[in-house]
Amino acid sequence: MLVGIYGIVINLSLFIMMGVDKRRSKRGSWRIEEKKLWGIALAGGALGGWIGMSVFRHKTKHTSFKLGFPFLTLLYIAGMAYLANRFYL
Asked: Domain limits of the chain?
């Protein structure tokens, strides 16, 4: 239960951060550091970042984001499937 809530919150956070950073980039104002975006993605928010890239068309020309967020998402899904299989089935 708590893992599910954490997943929703962390992914929603990175999704929102991608939108905020895109808006700031258009306005030419202060931006969110890429290190922070990657930190949230590594903490479990890669799916939210990946969806945010698509919705806001942000960071889509950066190969590291374009390949990294989907890779991390698949890695987390595989990890969660393994844990669910190992401990709950």
From this structure: 2-88
Amino acid at the residue 35: K
Residue 88 has pLDDT above 80, yes or no: no
pTM: 0.91
- Nearest residue to 49 (alpha-carbon basis) of 16, 78, 3, 71: 16
66: its two tokens:
């374009």
DSSP 21-44: HHHHHHHT-----HHHHHHHIIII
| Six-digit token string for 88 | 């709950």
Cβ burial 52-61 (10 Å sphere, 16+ → b, else e): bbeebebbee
Instruction: Give yes or no for a contact between 49 and 15, defined as CB atoms under 8 angstroms apart.
Output: yes
